[in-house]
């Protein structure tokens, strides 16, 4: 009674559809719907333990089981707001199937953040010699922006925005993090710089200093 069924949803389940997943879940629950009283007799448990086990439901239809015996599931019906920037930092590599038509058109982008799906990116966005020398870019960080993710595909579609540089170096890693979170780290415009004091070195005037609390 304390066991909770958790369905493992992988690529094979995706091919068979949601009905196949539901059938698997139902079969697993039926296997655990055992006659606990017979199990208690076979194990020679005491009367106290048997009374506790007799409280467990004995049903053949898993739909009649109490909620605490089932794994809760849900379905996304609507996306109210897209919070993610759709930009990710990662690496590019060639597709495994060299004989497929997709190999001639796309490369695979693998994000560093595993919460982001892998992305098909056009070969036209990749460096010109990427197909000939893919190992030269195995440790090169790229920024990819997701543009679409079809319901029937395990991989999203995206575009490479820019090459950041070698993985492990501070500047490429920092730029990748700032881009992923949508932080604008570009230089200030001339209009913003004009708001700053022009006469340098700048000091606080005595009148202004008198109105402030000195925390130095």
UniProtKB/TrEMBL annotation:
Q: Which GO terms describe its cellular component?
A: P-body
Q: Which GO terms describe its molecular function?
A: 3'-5'-RNA exonuclease activity; metal ion binding; poly(U) RNA binding
Pfam families, sorted: OB_Dis3 (PF17849)
User: Residue limits of the CSD2 domain?
Assistant: 107-182
Residues forming coiled coils: none
Q: Which domain of life is it from?
A: Eukaryota
An example GO BP is: mRNA catabolic process
InterPro entries this protein is in?
A: Dis3_CSD2, NA-bd_OB-fold, RNR_Ribonuclease
**Cited SUPFAM superfamilies:** Nucleic acid-binding proteins (SSF50249)
In which compartments does the protein localize? Cytoplasm
Q: What keywords does the record list, in alphabetical order?
A: Cytoplasm, Exonuclease, Hydrolase, Magnesium, Metal-binding, Nuclease, RNA-binding
PANTHER family assigned to the protein according to its UniProt record, in alphabetical order: DIS3-LIKE EXONUCLEASE 2 (PTHR23355:SF9), RIBONUCLEASE (PTHR23355)
The protein depicted here goes by the name DI3L2 exonuclease
Q: Organism source for this protein?
A: Platysteira castanea
The opening ranks of the lineage are: Eukaryota, Metazoa, Chordata, Craniata, Vertebrata
The gene name reads Dis3l2_0
């Amino acid at each position: 009674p304390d066991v909770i069924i958790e369905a493992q949803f992988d690529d094979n389940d995706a091919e068979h559809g949601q009905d196949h997943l539901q059938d698997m879940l139902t079969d697993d629950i039926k296997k655990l719907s055992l006659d606990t009283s017979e199990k208690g007799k076979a194990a020679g448990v005491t009367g106290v333990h048997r009374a506790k086990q007799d409280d467990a439901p004995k049903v053949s239809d898993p739909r009649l089981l109490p909620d605490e015996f089932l794994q809760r599931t849900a379905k996304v019906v609507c996306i109210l707001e897209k919070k993610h920037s759709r930009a990710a930092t990662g690496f590019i590599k060639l597709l495994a199937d060299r004989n497929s038509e997709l190999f001639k058109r796309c490369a695979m982008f693998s994000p560093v953040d595993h919460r982001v799906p892998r992305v098909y990116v056009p070969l036209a966005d990749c460096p010109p010699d990427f197909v000939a020398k893919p190992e030269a870019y195995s440790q090169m960080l790229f920024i990819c922006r997701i543009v679409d993710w079809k319901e029937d595909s395990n991989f999203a579609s995206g575009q490479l925005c820019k090459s950041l540089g070698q993985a492990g170096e501070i500047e490429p890693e920092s730029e990748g993090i700032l881009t992923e979170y949508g932080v604008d780290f570009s230089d200030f415009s001339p209009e913003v710089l004009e708001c700053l004091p022009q006469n340098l070195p700048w000091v606080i005037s005595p009148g202004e200093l008198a109105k402030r609390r000195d925390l130095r």
